[in-house]
């Protein structure tokens, strides 16, 4: 009974710590200081662009991404390593930091590939497709901004 409770408490604590770490890293990345001119604008998100794509285009770009960066199964190996590190005795906080950094760098590399795939598509898309994409993007942004008001 105590072992089960302890395990749940540990997992909850780790989850909360990872959430806080993610928030802090996100804030540092977004508001990193005046030397960080390479930040994307606050309102730009890959998810907005993905939602605005026509379903068949989204599927095609997803396949292109898989061809460029793989299926992502290797990302799950990182989680398995994290699970091992969390259970390791003695516990090594530095191993956790290293794994989180590696996962963050991997995610950024995948996002960069996604941006490139989208940019390549838009560079070759016919005007009608770009206009339809712009219309769907505008509709998505309108829905989001209306929710915030």
TrEMBL record:
Query: What Pfam families does the annotation carry?
Result: Metal_resist
Identification of the protein by name: Heavy-metal resistance
- State the organism of origin: Poseidonocella pacifica
InterPro entries the record matches: Metal_resist
